[in-house]
Amino acid sequence: MPDAPSREVALAVIGSGPAGLTAALYSARAELRPLVITGIPPGGQLTITTDVENFPGFPDGVQGPELVDLLRRQAAKFGAEFLDDYVNRVDFSRRPFRLETGTHGSIRARAVIVATGANARWLGLPSEQRLVGHGISACATCDGFFFKGQELVVVGGGDTAMEEALFLTNFASHVTIVHRRDRLRASTVMQERAKRHPKISIVYDAEVAEVLGREKVEGVRLRNPRTGESRDVAAGGLFVAIGHVPATEVFRGALELDPQGYVKVREGTRTSVDGVFAAGDVHDRRYRQAVTAAGDGCMAAIDAERWLAEEPPPAEAPRLAR
Asked: Domain limits at 163?
């Protein structure tokens, strides 16, 4: 990475979803004047979420983009600065840490909070992308409440798909699990729970070829990948449960990641490099909720503040955790 002059800050926050914005709020109130590199587009998955009814403090619900805007304004009120850009390269081998941005050059930071999140895997259908937020979701816990009394389809064959389907039976009249292979990948116990549930049926050797409906989901067209035969299934909602991809590619070789690419953390939010912290879905494969991401952001800000107060001299290289 070049040694060209660059701007230096005490704390850089990478990402502007609920984890990054909460980290910005807490660190700003601690007078660290954090620089938030928002990512492009900013805001994370909440920006493609319509009604959010399970974030504390909003008894009437709130739109996802509105919630992001409120969090950003609150952090800015206390001195957080925002850079609408992305990070395309990092150097955590020396301090100050170096972050190369897409259009604003190099940022040097004494501490860094990584809050880049994770993205749901989608089917890649034009009809799917058009109806995300209008009957298509990747989170049953977030959106299941909106589908009371409806027939629903869950795509996937792993534990996550079984968990989503079982959760949705609390609201749906019936749930159809669609899996493209002739057997599920889920653990035996999760398979048995799904198979025994009276509200769940499983369709094997099928993939969603198209989502039906103009303004909202009205059904799905299933196709057998081996025979090419297709049929339509009526449904009021489609839940895609084929996994998530953490946004960590830029950190490969710089931070310790698990086999799926999630950042490994220890002692709260500490990563493998002293002075670098992680918050939200970038390390959390289990909960993936806006409120848990916000809680992580709070913890990361407190961890970063305390670390900065005890920071070793800059000449000392960061320690790699073992």
From this structure: 122-240
